[in-house]
Write a structure and sequence with these properties.
Largest sheet: 5 strands, mixed
Radius of gyration: 25 Å
Shape: globular
Distance between the termini: 52 Å
Strand content: 25-35%
Number of strands: 40
Length: about 725
């Protein structure tokens, strides 16, 4: 049991006395691996293993698994949380930081909490306004809201006990999408926003009062502003260029996967990418840029750094290290180690010693063009800048920004020594527009700098790219990779020490990735975007059962026991990175994206599958262009749309946000008020009058009228709709 969950369970007098005397890490039994009847944090147990010791649902009886109850989450956005169950009560989070408390046996609603979120912050959420879970301890439920407030709610009533403003500077585009983490008498939360203009940090708060205990910044500040906040940052400063663009922020946000390690009484954080992405823009002159894309261990009581390990030195490709980690013990080279398992975006599987951060094993899991391998002795990658240095021209870099791995939890079965997780093998044509190199900071705006096209779309998109980009892409050695295998996505069972795959199951598309649950009874469970809940044999990878839910699933399932009955639960809903484009193979495309919590048991009933959506309405005829609109203005609008809008608006059918190629006459009439005045702010459409002028909004509108006209003409003449070209930051990378 993790420390926060220890506190959550302080119901007996003896335990209450223990809690009143303060927290002792030795109270946590780290010899017990896996969750029991309770599932007391999003990762399940103290180790974050997504592994359950329950065994009532087995290979032999899983065919009888059916729906016990379900619950409407009241949203049509991304659902990434894994519920917590403690003593028969389920707690989970939804979009923006909503919290639900439910009877875990029946689904009866006990209470809900909806934070009063400033919806302007939806503009700064690069990947939908998702939330990845709650924490429960000290009679409270803790959740981070999108706009930066950390709430402590009474566990029985949902009443706010205290709240803390976690943002030190609201002139920067911070958000919260991750789950809090407990470490004894503190709760730790990070933040997101590295694509914008932020400087990363994590903050610890006293669980009883909400008073700040400590804060650790992940990267240095401008040395002209005075000494750094810690010795660790003074050391890190040496790895940044003297001409660093401190004005932009630097990035390094820790947006998820904060983990408490009770064995060494340390909080381990994964640090995100740099801002801007390219080191040549962010830190001209080079340097490793600590502690970007690193794992950092902090003393629980003081917040001082104990060790660090940088997984991607000098990151220029959005290779965050913020993916969930698993704590365990492994025998390597005849010696038992307290180990940390981590598979970040960059394509490698890291096994680190938790005592000192030294690498014990590193294995390549997908194609990587930025590095060919690792030197274990030095702890440094073998870099291949000839294939990845975007300052010398466009490059085909593998992996792509969605990463070989991302936020969805992996499961580790200690008895079988298997790490079971989704892996994506995909690259991108990435380039640095010349104008990005010396671009001024865009306050509260995207400052990523690079543009890219993902390899599943590259061959089809190539004729529409500037000739220079076409020629550059086809001349690169990795072009053969694109032709042979533009992508693959799999659920794999992997030996963490050797990196060898025991079995693999192919997914339906590159976006089809999800969290995994493993059980002692030899089952692994995951969901698909097509709406299937899949149960497989952990030993063989054989599919034992598929339940058609009619709802896209990304979040990791979990399991628990109430009154002698084992249940299995998962939240449904498509969103997150790439959320603006709903894949045609997904249930969200065919049946809509109404979010539900689904809970199963043996001898349960069928799942009510939603009906297919009706055919798309025809694209309406657009209005005439405003007087004075020229091709130059339309081209300017295209560039502005790519820079400001396309990260959310894919303009594809059935996306969570409306396709702006299908605007009605009324929407066209109100366009300026919507964009500049925030007419639809409360529905999630922020105002843009701080970044865009009326003339620029007119240009964007002219571009959208033009694209709607072309789509309307294609429709009228029976031509097929243009295929989607999805990329990172820009969906129209034509500004090279």
């Amino acid at each position: 049991m993790r420390p926060g969950r220890f506190l959550a369970g302080c119901v007996a007098v003896a335990l209450l006395v223990s809690c009143s005397k303060g927290f002792d890490p030795s109270d946590i039994d780290i010899s017990v691996f896996g969750a029991g009847e309770n599932w007391d944090n999003p990762g399940g147990d103290w180790a974050g293993s997504h592994y359950s010791r329950l065994g009532d649902i087995t290979r032999e009886n899983v065919a009888a698994l059916g729906l016990a109850w379900d619950y409407d989450l009241g949203s049509n956005r991304g659902q990434e949380a894994t519920p917590i169950v403690i003593d028969g009560v389920m707690y989970t989070s939804g979009v923006l930081g909503r919290v639900y408390a439910l009877d875990a046996a029946t689904g009866r609603e006990l209470w809900t909490f909806t934070p009063e979120v400033d919806m302007q912050y939806s503009r700064y959420a690069c990947c939908d306004f998702v939330n990845r879970g709650v924490a429960v301890a000290d009679g409270k439920v803790f959740v981070g809201a999108l706009d930066g407030w950390l709430y402590a709610l009474d566990r029985k009533s949902g009443k706010v006990e205290w709240r803390a403003d976690t943002f030190p500077d609201r002139s920067r585009a911070y958000t919260i999408t991750g789950a809090p983490e407990f470490a004894g008498d503190i709760v730790v939360i990070g933040n997101a926003g590295a694509e914008y203009d932020t400087r990363g940090y994590v903050t610890a708060y006293d669980i009883r009062s909400g008073r700040q205990a400590w804060r650790f910044y992940t990267i240095p500040h401008d040395p002209k502003e005075g000494p750094q906040e810690s010795r660790a940052l003074e050391d890190a400063l040496k790895t940044w260029s003297p001409t660093t663009r401190w004005d932009i922020g630097g990035g390094g946000t820790a947006w998820d996967a904060i983990t408490y390690d009770p064995e060494f009484d340390q909080v381990i954080i994964g640090v995100g990418n740099g801002g801007p992405y390219a080191r040549a823009v962010r830190s001209p002159g080079g340097g490793d840029n600590l502690y970007l894309s690193s794992l950092v261990a902090l003393d629980r009581q003081t917040g001082e750094m104990k060790w660090h390990f940088q997984e991607t030195p000098g990151d220029s490709w959005d290779f965050t290290a913020v993916q969930p980690m698993v704590l365990t013990r492994l025998t390597i080279g005849g010696r038992e180690h307290s180990a940390l398992l981590h598979t970040p975006k960059n394509g490698f599987f890291f096994v680190l010693d938790r005592e000192n951060g030294k690498p014990l094993a590193i294995n390549q899991m997908v194609r990587t063009s930025w590095a060919s391998g690792w030197d274990l002795d030095s702890g440094k990658p073998i870099l291949t800048p000839e294939y990845s240095d975007i300052t010398t021209g466009p490059k085909l870099v593998f992996p792509a920004p969605p990463g070989a791995r991302n936020w969805y939890g992996a499961a580790f079965d200690p008895g079988r020594n298997l790490y079971i997780a989704s892996f994506l093998d995909m690259g991108n044509l990435i380039f640095l527009p010349p104008k990005s190199i010396h671009a001024p900071r865009r306050k509260l705006g995207l400052n990523a700098g690079t543009q890219s096209v993902f390899t599943p779309y590259l061959e089809a998109a190539l004729p529409g790219l500037p000739m220079e980009l076409q020629q550059a892409a086809q001349s690169l050695p990795q072009w053969q990779w694109v032709k042979e295998k533009p992508w693959s996505s799999e659920i794999r069972a992997v030996d963490p020490v050797t990196g060898k795959t025991r079995w693999a199951i192919s997914r339906d598309g590159w976006q089809d990735r999800s969290g995994v649950l493993a059980t002692r009874s030899g089952l692994a469970v995951f969901g698909t975007l097509s709406g299937k809940l899949v149960v497989i044999d952990t030993d063989t990878g054989k599919v034992l059962k598929q339940i058609d839910t009619g709802r896209s699933i990304m979040a990791a399932p979990m399991t628990y026991k109430v009154n002698g009955v084992q249940y299995l639960a998962v939240q449904t809903g498509w969103g997150g990175g790439g959320w603006g484009l709903v894949p045609e193979y997904s249930a969200a495309y065919a049946k809509g994206n109404a979010n539900r919590l689904l809970v199963f048991r043996l001898d349960g009933g069928p799942v009510p599958v939603p009906p297919d959506l009706p055919p798309l309405d025809p694209i309406p005829a657009p209005p005439a262009q405003r007087p004075g609109v020229t091709p130059q203005i339309i081209a300017q609008g295209s560039s502005l749309f790519s820079q400001n809008c396309s990260i959310c608006h894919s303009n594809r059918p059935r996306a969570s946000l409306p396709s702006l190629q299908r605007m009605t006459p009324g929407t066209h009439t109100l366009f300026d008020r919507i964009v500049l005045d925030g007419l639809l702010l409360q529905t999630g459409m922020p105002r843009w009058d701080d970044l865009l002028t009326p003339d620029q909004v007119t240009a964007i509108h002219a571009h959208l009228i033009d694209t709607q006209r072309k789509a309307f003409e294609d429709q009228s003449q029976g031509r097929p709709a243009a295929k989607a070209v999805y990329s990172r930051i820009s969906t129209s990378p034509t500004t090279y």
